[in-house]
Amino acid sequence: MIDAVIFDIGGVLYHWHPRYLYEKLIPDRDRLEWFCTHVVTPEWHFQHDAGRPAAETTAELVAAFPEERALIEAYVPRWLETLPGPIDGMIELVHALADGGVPLYGITNFSHEFWPRFASTEPAFARFRDIIVSGEERMVKPDPAIFALAQARFPVDPSRALFIDDRDDNVAAAEAAGYRGHVFTDAARAKAALTALGLSL
Prior knowledge:
Blueprint: E1 4-7, H1 19-22, H2 29-38, H3 42-49, H4 54-64, H5 69-73, H6 90-99, E2 104-108, H7 115-119, E3 130-133, H8 134-137, H9 144-153, E4 161-165, H10 168-176, E5 180-183, H11 187-196
Parallel strand pairs: 1-2, 1-4, 2-3, 4-5
């Protein structure tokens, strides 16, 4: 049985990838694929999740690919376009849990600069009691330290809290810290996992 739920954000509640922005800017499919695997890549972006300022990472990338300056410099001002919308059924699930009185928390790998811009666009985040943002703390999942921080900040018994994330390594780290874990694939399976653990939805 559980009495609290901890969500990841990108890949669980919202779709995210740099490609969603750049497919609007690069019409040639082969060039788009090259750009998203060699220039503005998820791995490059993950530096922001660890707390690096976007101004620094952008300057470094422009120095490495000067011919791509215009596209690289579009990333920060148009960053919200990398999040095209919520994953089907998940915002509704957040509201259903909150309406049922279930305490909700978040642990997300997210830039401290980008998070406020994004969080203000989604009212469902107001239903969360606390959200740990990796860029603010300068620690990222699956580092055990971020789960130790969650244990210190979230007033829940880890053994009675379900952590939902789309990455196996993050879920494994949460389970090693004593949380229940669910590897996210879709809303139906997440809901089934929650009801199997005793929550009414």
